[in-house]
Amino acid sequence: MTKVTMTVNGKPVSGEVEGRTLLSQFLREGLGMTGTHIGCDTSQCGACVVHVNGQDVKSCTMFALECEGAEVRTIEGMANADGSLSTIQQAFQDHHGLQCGFCTPGMVMTAAALLEKNPKPSEAEIRDYLEGNICRCTGYHNIVKAIMAASGQDVGAIAAE
């Protein structure tokens, strides 16, 4: 067992982990942050996306020890300081960008990373960026609308699939 220390959602945390402990496992089991979902264990679905040092990563592809000293942000850290939903979270709610909710944490984290890199993405850019995230319920249409709305763009022009 090795001690790992990182900052998660602005708070310093540490824990003892085996070398093979995945970041997703450390967050869920070690820290009790179950908002990061594990959907496939093969890096295909994107349900486990978190931000590590400002980059969106699939936490099932990183060892917890790789995050020694890192800044990690999870879905639990996305809300505003007063506990209200962030702009992107509110847009997902307002535009029905979720159904069963299983993919939602990863989608929100991926969308937030996209908007950091590209504050006004086109519909095609959003769909391209979401390529690594799977949703089995919504067909992505409302997720794209939510991201467009969060970026301050008109959602009326989005073509139905």
UniProtKB/TrEMBL annotation:
Gene3D superfamilies for the chain: 3.10.20.30, [2Fe-2S]-binding domain (1.10.150.120)
PROSITE patterns associated with the record: 2FE2S_FER_2
Entry protein name: Carbon-monoxide dehydrogenase small subunit
GO molecular-function term, one example from the UniProt record: oxidoreductase activity
A Pfam short name: Fer2
All residue ranges annotated as the 2Fe-2S ferredoxin-type domain in the record: 2-78
Keywords (A to Z) from UniProt: 2Fe-2S, Iron, Iron-sulfur, Metal-binding, Oxidoreductase
Keyword Metal-binding listed: yes
